[in-house]
Amino acid sequence: xxxxxxxxxxxxxxxxxxxxxxxxxxxxxxxxxxxxxxxxxxxxxxxxxxxxxxxxxxxxxxxxxxxxxxxxxxxxxxxxxxxxxxxxxxxxxxxxxxxxxxxxxxxxxxxxxxxxxxxxxxxxxxxxxxxxxxxxxxxxxxxxxxxxxxxxxxxxxxxxxxxxxxxxxxxxxxxxxxxxxxxxxxxxxxxxxxxxxxxxxxxxxxxxxxxxxxxxxxxxxxxxxxxxxxxxxxxxxxxxxxxxxxxxxxxxxxxxxxxxxxxxxxxxxxxxxxxxxxxxxxxxxxxxxxxxxxxxxxxxxxxxxxxxxxxxxxxxxxxxxxxxxxxxxxxxxxxxxxxxxxxxxxxxxxxxxxxxxxxxxxxxxxxxxxxxxxxxxxxxxxxx
Amino acid sequence: xxxxxxxxxxxxxxxxxxxxxxxxxxxxxxxxxxxxxxxxxxxxxxxxxxxxxxxxxxxxxxxxxxxxxxxxxxxxxxxxxxxxxxxxxxxxxxxxxxxxxxxxxxxxxxxxxxxxxxxxxxxxxxxxxxxxxxxxxxxxxxxxxxxxxxxxxxxxxxxxxxxxxxxxxxxxxxxxxxxxxxxxxxxxxxxxxxxxxxxxxxxxxxxxxxxxxxxxxxxxxxxxxxxxxxxxxxxxxxxxxxxxxxxxxxxxxxxxxxxxxxxxxxxxxxxxxxxxxxxxxxxxxxxxxxxxxxxxxxxxxxxxxxxxxxxxxxxxxxxxxxxxxxxxxxxxxxxxxxxxxxxxxxxxxxxxxxxxxxxxxxxxxxxxxxxxxxxxxxxxxxxx
Lengths: 384, 384
Hints:
2 copies of one chain form a homodimer.
Chain A lengths: L1 E5 L6 H10 L3 E6 L2 H9 L10 H12 L4 E4 L5 H11 L3 E4 L6 H4 L3 H25 L4 E7 L14 E6 L2 E6 L7 H20 L2 E7 L1 E3 L25 H11 L3 E4 L5 E6 H13 L7 E6 L2 E4 H14 L6 E4 L17 H5 L8 H13 L19
Parallel strand pairs in A: 1-2, 1-4, 2-3, 4-5, 5-8, 8-12, 9-11, 10-14
Antiparallel strand pairs in A: 6-7, 11-13
Helix pairs in contact in A: 1-9, 4-6, 6-7, 8-10, 8-12, 10-12
C-alpha cells in the first residue's frame, strides 16, 4: 500500500515510516523540519544524536533495501500539500505533522496561536487536498486522549449514546481539553468528522495516550536510525523524563499530588496500532475514533516503578512532588474504553520492569548529553 | 460601563454600538474593515447604502450627543488587540468580529482556512489580551445555534447532564457544526471555556439563531445610521433574502424540502440580549452559554409567511423548492432550550405580519439596488 507519513521526521513519524516500509508498504515521508527548528529556538536537544532525514533514509535503504521517498513540504501551504498528494497518490495518509507539546502551546500568545494555526490549518489543508486529489485515500490522524479531559463518566471511543428527556442519540463524546495544544486536536477532530460527512472522506482518529520508549525493531538496527527521544519539560513525556531524571541523579519531579491518571503505551504499540488502522481502513464517509493506549497508570505509579528499577541499578533516586505547573484535576475518576484496536488485533506490550531497566541502560550510555536543567517545569498554565 | 464592540462596523455590531450608547454606556468600536473588503472581493453590496464608520459615528454624535470611539485594528494582530484593551480598558467586550458566513467558508480551501484562522486566532488573541491587559473584563461572544447541529435530543444551553453506566457528569453539549464557519465557532467555544477554567476569565457565549430585520430604534433616526442588510447567498440570512426575493419578483428559493427548522430572532432582540448579558455579567471563572433566539420556524413556514404578506401588497410571489446546496438534515427533531435570557428579562418581539410588511416596504424603497442574481446559491457543500 502507498502510505504517506506527514511529520515523518518526528519521534513517532520516523519509526512508523521504517516499520511500514519493513512490512512491505511503499512509504513516503513529508516534513518541513519545523520540529527541529522549534528545538533549536528553545535550546533543546533529543537525548540521542539524530541524523538528518536524508541520512536516515539512506541508512534505511542500505540496511533494508527499501526506499523511503522524502517530500519537503509545509502542511500550512495548501498548494504544496495538494501537489504532494497528486504526485505520490497515497492510499493511506498517516498524519503526525503537528506541533505536539502542551507546554509549548502554553508558553505565550505567539506559540499558542502558532500551535492552533499550524495544527488546525495544516489538517484543514490535508482534508481539502484529499477532497481534490485523493478522495479515496484513508486518513489516519494522531489525536490525543487529552481531548476528553477527565470527566466523571467512562470515556467512550469518540461517540456516546445519550438518553435525554426520553429521547436518544449517539453524539460525539464531550471534550474538555487541557491546553491550547489539546484544544487544537479537538478542533481537528470536529473538522475531520465534518469532511467525512460532507465529502465522504474516510478517516480514523487515533486518540493516543502518553507514549514511552526509545527503541523499536527498526531503530535498534543502526544508531543513525535512532528516533528523537525527548526528556525535556516541553517535548518529553512523563515516563521518558523520569527515566532520564533517575540516570541524571536528580529527583523524579511529580507534578502536584501525582494521582493524575492517564492511558499509556509503548512506542512499539503506536506503530502496531497505525499499521492495524491502515490495513483495516475506514470506509468512505466513515469517521472512526480509536482510543489508543494499553494501560492506565497514575503519575505516582510510574515514579515508583522508575525509582525501584533505578535503585536496582545502584542509582539513588528520590521522588519529589513539586507544585503542578498545569491546571488539571489531581484526583479524579478515569476509566476510558479502549477495545477497538484490540478487536483489530493489537497485542499490547505492557509496561514491565524489564522495559524500564532497558530504557535506563540506554539512557546511561548517553548520560553525558543530559541537561538536567531542561527537566524542571518553567511553563505555567496560569499565574505569571 | 465601558463597552468595546469588536466588529463594530457590521450588521449587528453597529446597531449594538448605538443601542448601548443610547443606554448610557461608554462605547468604543473596533473593526479592520475586513467585511467590507470581502464584499468588494465578491462584488456584493448591502441593500441599503452604508456610510463609512467615521461618518456613522459623526452622525450618531450629532443626533445623540454621545461619542463612540473608533479603533482601527485587526484581531489577528495580537499587539494591536492588547494595545486597544490597555488604552480603552473595557469592562465588557462584545465580540462580533468574525467572518460570519457559512457559504463563504465553503467556497474554497483558501476561504475555509481564512475563516478558521481569522475567527479562531482572532478570538485566541482576544483571550490572551484579556488575560494580560483586562483580566476582570467580561467577554460576550457571539456564537451560533449552528454549533449544535440537529441532534435527536433536546438541545440544552451549552452543557448537558449525562448519566452513563451508573455515573453522572455535566459536560459540554456535543457539537455537530455544518460548515467550516460553524466549526470555527465551535472551536472558539472550546478555547473560551478553557481560558475561563485556567485564567479565571469571565465569558458569556451567545449561541445565536438566525437574525432577521433591518431597523432598530437607532438606525431609523437617520438614513446614514442604516445597518448592513444583506440578501445575497453569502451574507444574507433566509428571511431577509425571502423578503428581497418577493420585492424583486423572483421565486422565494427554499433549499431542499424546506422542513429544516431553526431558531430565529429579530435584530432588535439581538441588541436586547447583548445588553442584558453585559448588565448581568458572568463572574470571574464563569463560562455561561445562552441560546439566543425567540422562536423556531421551518424554512417553509417563513416562505409561506412572506408569500402571504407580499401578496397583500400586490406582489406576485412564487415559492420554489430548489436543490439544497448545503448538506443538512431536511427532516429532523428540533427542540432547543432557550430560557436563560428570558430569565434575565428578555421581552421577545415575535415575528409578525406587521414586521414582514414593514420589511417589504423598506425593501421596496431600495428595490432599484437589488441584484437578483446574487440570491441564487452558487456555493455547494459537496460535489464539484
